[in-house]
Backbone:
């Protein structure tokens, strides 16, 4: 233990106490365990007295004496803290003559010195207890701070799946003042990282490869956190050979195996990784690992949902081979429009499902009507007209699709109010309904039907421009025209016919 | 030695901050509400102010605004400690220069790095190693 706490203590009042007891100024010193002078530095012989006591002093309890020169002596006492041991010495230099002089007698002075030394030891103990408590509290704050900040990132970004890891790692890199922070989970092919460089790292790619390879295998074998600060650490022969960085890596165990690691990398010029860094990184590893699990589950659920939806769509499209791919195309075009309009993430999610499932209601239309190559009778047309409402009825029980369903229900409304099922007008038609209507119109014209072949992109755009304001929302048509003018890749993918210019 | 004023009514936070900052070589003054904090600031401007928001007598917000009135040319930074529930309060701080947030629970690392950023690392450690 260093003299840190001794140095923080104020000995002036002990000095005053002693001076009062002696009746004159005394030569009082506080010394570190090695005899270094903590209080009384100005005293002429303090350093020498310190050396002498450290070398020959009696560490047994109580006040001891050393003759000093011809007419003086040193009284000293070890300062002992229960449970910790000796942390230093207190000492006074007195005239031997004091022995005979009275009052105050030397005994009196020795008693005062003894009491005072006990006082110093007590204060030291209190100070050191307070220090370890505040240190403990400080490191708890540190952990809480980290956990809260992880939580904040997760809450802010539950919808954006990819961003959250990077943002988290980045804030961890800043908080832990590390050049690189990485989360490595080879079994799922995950290696996410963020940098906060104090100096360029020229071979970052190589570093990342090492993390996934040798470093991960090393931790997998040792199953424990790894700290390498020294340039000459022998373990460097196995890991990061020839890469002069400070490394801190903490494992996360799943079913008794190392499943992932969190790695911090620092340039050699930075401070060593400390125990506190290690504790925090272990917490971070835990958090990231559960977050990663959650994401994989979420991904799995998303995939499952998507597959279920596709199954439903295939059931509809199986009824009419001519509508094959229609839902997918309308979905694609709707999302293009939605993104171009700058819709927020959660609305895009609703538009995603609404546009994908907009025609699910067609499942209730008799095949004879749906696939009839000739003109429909009025009764037959009624079947067609109820399909958006059918979509709604089928999907409304799915809580997650509550909002998405509105787009499906109202995709056949017209801007002038002459559409179905509710005859809504203008902006009373839900926005997603108006978006899907534009996409739906485009695809109906460009794709082949039972009764006609698909027409060209140019014809479709002309028709859409013609019905803007009557059937379709002119603002959305404008957005769509802008997208279409930029020769989007879907023209090729959907094999849309083109007219020669 | 750089002087830091800590204003918070929660003694444990003040204590932990004080201990850690003293170890890092700063001189610490404390006040347990905004009013006492304002008195301390007007008596002698610190090199940095760390304040809580929710406090009796005078809140952190009132303190910051009062300092803005009393010392329009203030040059020392203010670090405001906020918890989640204070987050809506962030709007009023937009107009106050040299003000930063410390998310509660306050991390000693981040306090030290912020102080270092503002005051430079020219802090002489009070203790010998």
Residues:
């Amino acid at each position: 233990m260093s003299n840190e706490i001794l140095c923080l203590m104020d000995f002036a009042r002990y000095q005053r106490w002693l001076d009062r007891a002696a009746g004159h100024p005394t030569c009082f010193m506080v010394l570190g365990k090695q005899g270094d002078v903590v209080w009384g530095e100005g005293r002429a012989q303090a350093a020498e007295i310190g050396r002498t006591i450290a070398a020959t002093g009696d560490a047994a309890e109580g006040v001891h004496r050393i003759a000093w020169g011809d007419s003086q002596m040193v009284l000293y006492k070890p300062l002992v803290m229960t449970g910790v041991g000796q942390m230093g010495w207190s000492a006074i230099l007195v005239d031997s003559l004091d022995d005979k002089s009275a009052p105050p007698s030397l005994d009196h002075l020795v008693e005062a010195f003894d009491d005072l030394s006990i006082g110093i030891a007590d204060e030291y103990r209190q100070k050191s207890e307070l220090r370890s408590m505040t240190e403990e509290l400080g490191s708890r704050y540190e952990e809480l701070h980290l956990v809260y900040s992880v939580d904040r990132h997760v809450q802010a970004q539950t919808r954006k799946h990819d961003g959250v890891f990077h943002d988290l790692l980045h804030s961890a890199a800043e908080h832990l003042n590390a050049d690189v922070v990485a989360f490595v989970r080879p079994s799922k092919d995950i290696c996410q990282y963020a940098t906060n460089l104090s100096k360029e790292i020229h071979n970052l790619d190589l570093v990342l490869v090492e993390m996934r390879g040798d470093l991960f295998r090393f931790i997998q074998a040792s199953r424990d956190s790894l700290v390498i600060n020294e340039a000459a650490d022998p373990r460097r022969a196995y890991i990061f050979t020839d890469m002069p960085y400070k490394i801190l890596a903490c494992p996360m165990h799943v079913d008794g195996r190392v499943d992932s690691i969190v790695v911090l990398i620092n340039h050699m010029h930075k401070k060593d990784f400390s125990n506190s860094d290690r504790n925090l990184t272990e917490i971070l590893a835990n958090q990231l690992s559960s977050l990663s699990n959650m994401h994989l589950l979420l991904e799995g659920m998303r995939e499952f949902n998507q597959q279920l939806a596709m199954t439903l769509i295939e059931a509809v499209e199986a009824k009419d081979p001519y509508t094959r791919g229609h839902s997918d195309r309308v979905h694609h075009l709707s999302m293009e429009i939605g993104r171009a309009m700058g819709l927020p993430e959660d609305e895009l999610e609703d538009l995603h499902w609404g546009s994908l499932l907009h025609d699910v209601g067609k499942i209730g239309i008799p095949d004879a009507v749906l696939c009839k190559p000739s003109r429909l009778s009025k009764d037959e047309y009624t079947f067609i007209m109820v399909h958006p409402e059918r979509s709604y009825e089928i999907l409304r029980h799915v809580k997650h699709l509550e909002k998405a369903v509105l787009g499906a229900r109202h995709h056949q409304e017209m801007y002038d109010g002459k559409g179905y099922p509710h005859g809504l007008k203008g902006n009373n038609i839900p926005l997603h309904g108006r978006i899907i209507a534009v996409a739906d119109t485009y695809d109906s014209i460009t794709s082949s039907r039972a009764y006609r072949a698909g027409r060209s992109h140019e014809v479709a755009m002309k028709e859409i421009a013609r019905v803007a304001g009557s059937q379709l929302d002119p603002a959305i048509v404008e957005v769509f025209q802008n997208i279409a003018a930029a020769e989007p890749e879907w023209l090729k993918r959907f094999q849309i016919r083109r007219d020669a210019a | 030695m750089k002087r830091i004023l800590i204003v918070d009514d929660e003694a444990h936070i003040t204590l932990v901050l004080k201990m850690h900052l003293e170890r890092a070589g700063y001189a610490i003054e404390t006040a347990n509400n905004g009013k006492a904090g304002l008195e301390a600031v007007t008596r002698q401007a610190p090199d940095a102010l760390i304040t809580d928001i929710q406090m009796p007598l005078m809140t952190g917000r009132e303190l910051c605004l009062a300092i803005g009135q009393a010392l329009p040319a203030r040059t020392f930074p203010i670090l405001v400690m906020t918890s989640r529930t204070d987050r809506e309060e962030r709007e009023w701080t937009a107009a106050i220069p040299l003000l930063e947030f410390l998310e509660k629970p306050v991390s000693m690392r981040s306090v030290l790095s912020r102080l270092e950023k503002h005051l430079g690392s020219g802090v002489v450690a009070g203790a010998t190693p």
Chain B touches chain A through 20 residues (CB under 8 Å). The radius of gyration of chain B is 14 Å.
